[in-house]
Design a protein that fits this description.
Length: about 425
């Protein structure tokens, strides 16, 4: 008989009896999806792996601790036959056939009446990849195709625009510290779907080069602001493009709410009645020290870290930072936007009692190919910045954590430069 291709279908199993025979690794792999589908699951097996047992303990499945017996499939809509006894599998398979219950078999795909596809999920869609015929079945290949599709959808390299659900509006996307791999999956997907991208100078600018030609990319720093403040001009640009029915991404460095003016933009959009979503990003305050081998906390060394803006000097009346209190903390101080004022900041901390030999590290352009780390102490940092020509953007770390790093052997895994 000619072998026809399998017919793909999605089973809606909510409240419907599914019988699983065998409580081993196969059941352990398949049960979570059956539970997620809302099936009424009966497991028949003398033994079960600890993870399957945990599902029974949690009340997610009913477990009868015994071998398969004829009649077990009487009420089933669907069966998974996966015992370690080939004879029992054959008998159960015959019962399934007689009762017209679709069944998968772990030991013999040829004898099964259904096959489990390799599945993955992305944004409310299930991607299921099925081999067409028993002959030449290659489960690793189907899994690889599933991975390629799901990964592509997640990271935006495979673009599948949302025609029904996509609404015009703005996404404030935290792009991470600069390495294009350090944006979130959601951020990357929204970027891939955007009509207009308004980008900061910091963040993963390499991603902009990958956008299709129809996408309008606007440099936030270059928006003319005339009688407005620069930020107002950016807000207006976001509102205007969204009002034209476009999908707008505001791509920001790090996290939108860490010295990123994200809430100001959100407020302006809310006032204009524009729908807006905020996508968190990896903040440079943690990731840039980390990329340079500095943990912001370390057991026995620092039990807190404080992230501070250094954009105004300590004696500036606009400063909202209590430098005297910060000098009294024993944990890590992380200063953003502080390169220009680090001399005055260091003096102030020392004047309020922080030891002058407290270690300091400046990490410039962290996570990018140009990353550079320069070490100093509070006593020497001003001079070091001058002589070493440290330039923004840089994250400044003050505290003993600066000295705890170790040189790690190359792992072969992709990672940000150290
Ligand atoms: C306006 S703040 C924005 C911070 C951002 N929202 C975040 O969460 O990382 C800009 C400052 O962040 C720091 N910064 C951002 N990206 C950096 C990077 N790749 N390397 C070093 N410092 C960076 C610098 O201190 C820079 O002056």
């Amino acid at each position: 008989m000619a072998e026809h291709p399998a017919y793909p279908v999605g089973l809606r199993l909510t409240g419907r009896r599914v019988v699983v025979l065998g409580g081993g690794q196969v059941a352990g792999r398949r049960l979570p999806a059956l539970i997620a589908a809302g099936a009424d699951i009966l497991l028949v097996s003398p033994r079960a792996t600890p993870s399957v047992e945990a599902m029974a303990d949690a009340g997610e499945i009913t477990w009868e601790r015994r071998p398969y017996a004829e009649g077990d499939l009487a009420d089933a809509w669907y069966a998974l036959i996966a015992t370690s006894d080939p004879e029992a599998n054959t008998q159960a398979s015959a019962e399934a056939e007689a009762n017209r219950v679709w069944c998968v078999r772990s030991d013999n795909a040829d004898a099964a009446t259904a096959w489990t596809p390799a599945t993955g999920h992305s944004e409310g869609v299930t991607v299921a990849v099925l081999t067409s015929r028993a002959e030449g079945r290659d489960p690793r290949h189907t899994a690889a195709i599933r991975d390629a599709v799901v990964e592509g959808l997640r990271d935006g390299t495979l673009v599948a625009p949302h025609h029904r659900t996509r609404t015009p509006g703005v996404a404030l996307v935290g792009g991470g510290p600069g390495d294009p791999d350090l944006i979130t999956v959601r951020g990357r997907r929204l970027l891939a779907e955007a009509d207009v991208v308004i980008a900061d100078r910091l963040g993963p600018r390499d991603l902009l080069a990958e956008l299709p030609p129809h996408v309008e990319v606007i440099d936030a720093a270059k928006i003319p602001y005339g009688r407005f403040m620069a930020q107002e001009a950016i807000n207006n640009a976001l509102i205007e493009h969204a009002k034209q029915g476009k999908s707008v991404v505001r791509l920001k460095g790090g996290d939108p709410y860490v010295f990123g003016r994200g809430m100001e933009e959100l407020q302006a959009l809310a006032e204009a009645g524009i729908p807006c979503t905020v996508v968190p990003g990896i903040s440079s305050s943690i990731s840039v020290p980390g990329a340079a081998g500095i943990p912001v906390t370390h057991r026995g060394v620092a039990h807190e870290f404080t992230v501070v803006s250094g954009h105004v000097a300590p004696d500036d009346e606009r400063s909202l930072v209590d430098w005297a209190s910060l000098a009294g903390l024993t944990g890590t101080l992380v200063i953003l936007m502080g390169v220009d004022k680090i001399g005055r900041i260091a003096e102030t901390l020392v004047a309020h009692g922080k030891p002058a030999d407290t270690p300091v590290a400046l990490v410039q352009e962290g996570t990018t190919a140009a990353q550079r780390r320069v070490d100093a102490t509070l006593a020497t940092v001003a001079e070091t910045v001058r002589t070493q020509d440290v330039k923004p953007p840089a994250v400044i770390v003050i505290g003993e954590v600066v000295t705890v790093g170790v040189a790690t052997p190359a792992s072969g895994l992709p990672k940000t430069p150290q």
